[in-house]
Design goal:
InterPro entries: TPR-like_helical_dom_sf (IPR011990). With 286 residues, the chain is an all-alpha fold. Among the domains are: 82 residues, Tetratricopeptide repeat domain (Serine Threonine Protein Phosphatase 5, Tetratricopeptide repeat); 57 residues, no CATH class. Helix content is 76%, strand content 0%. It is elongated, with a radius of gyration of 30 Å. The N and C termini lie far apart (129 Å).
């Protein structure tokens, strides 16, 4: 009486066992697929930070050729091209990315940055204006400040620089840019304050050191500020200060500073020596 149930039961068991035997395979494949994505994501980050920007560009060009629909690889290529100093090509990549339905406001900010690097100011401003004001990031406001600077819209520039500085834990770069903006406007005291603040956050930022010396020199403060500097940096800052003094008509002070720059540099300081020779030659001709 029990025999009629034997075959269906066996079939059910066989099917069940078959399903169980295939399930681990699918799980392994799925796990390997996830692992590959993780590994590839890590490789993408490694390549973006590669010491040779050209290697990163070549990697992402190969990757996007093999998977043209992968937006993450397109983003990697756009970033790599910027890092390699090829912003015109990066603009095309970011324009393609932002045309896709899955594009983000972060992508649009990246496009604006690439456009600024190609001096496409009107286009960059239009891209930034199209981003909702609720999207508030350091990079967005940094670029907004740069565009406002280019338009000589000082009030907006100051406002954007201030917001950007408050949205990052490493504000030295944006403070330096803000200070340089003040320097070009002739607001030397404000510029000096901002360069000093930038160096408080990043003591090794040489551009801020050089800009600080420019701001002080513009106010005829011809002594070097009390900041950390190497011997080579000291010579270079003396050279900057000397040129500033000469430009303002303080030639004797400039000559003395050039002499200090030449003797301070641990090696031969060609630019300072040439400037000193030209200055002495001009004085002899008089």
């Amino acid at each position: 009486m029990r025999h009629p149930f034997a075959l269906p039961l066996c079939l059910a068991l066989a099917l069940g066992l078959g399903a169980c035997s295939r399930s681990p395979d699918r799980q392994v494949e799925a796990a390997l697929g996830e692992l590959n994505v993780i590994d590839e994501s890590g490789l993408n980050e490694v390549m973006l930070g590669a010491s040779d920007p050209a290697d990163a560009v070549a990697y992402f060009q190969r990757a996007t050729a093999g998977a043209p629909d992968r937006i993450d690889l397109q983003r990697g290529l756009g970033k790599a091209l910027i890092r390699a100093g090829r912003p015109a090509e990066a603009v095309g990549i970011w324009q393609g990315i932002t045309a896709r339905p899955e594009a983000t406001d972060e992508d649009r900010v990246a496009l604006a940055g690439a456009l600024i690097r190609t001096n496409s100011w009107t286009q960059a401003e239009a891209v930034l204006n199209a981003i909702p004001p609720t999207y508030e990031t350091y990079e967005r406001y940094r670029l907004e400040a740069i565009v406002a600077d280019a338009n000589s819209d000082w009030a907006r520039a100051d406002s954007f620089y201030e917001v950007a500085a408050g949205l990052t834990t490493t504000p030295a770069s944006v403070l330096n840019n803000w200070g340089y903006s003040k320097l070009t406007r002739g607001a030397y005291g404000d510029a000096q304050r901002l360069f000093t603040e930038a160096l408080r956050h990043e003591p090794g930022l040489f551009t801020a050191k050089n800009n600080l010396v420019l701001a002080r020199g513009a106010q005829r403060q011809y002594d070097l500020p009390v900041i950390p500097m190497s011997q080579t940096e000291r010579a270079q800052l003396l050279y900057t200060l000397a040129l500033t003094a000469i430009k303002q008509g303080d030639v004797s002070i400039g000559r003395s500073l050039l002499e200090d720059a030449v003797t301070t540099h641990p090696r031969h300081f060609e630019e300072a020596a040439r400037a000193l020779d030209a200055l002495q030659g001009g004085a002899a001709a008089l």
